[in-house]
Amino acid sequence: MNVDLTPGTLRNSGHREDPLPARQDETTRVVVVDDHELFLSGLVNLLAEHVDVVGTARTGEEALDVVDRVRPEAVLMDLNLPGMSGVETTRRLMSAHPALCVVILTVMADEDALMAAILAGAAGYLLKNAPIEDIVAGVRVALSGGSLVAPELTGKLLRSLRHRHTETTRPRPHLTDREREVLDLMVEGYDNAEIARRLFISQNTVKNHVASILGKLEVSNRLQAAVRAVRSLT
Question: Quick one: 23-152 is in which CATH superfamily?
Answer without folding.
Answer: Response regulator (3.40.50.2300)
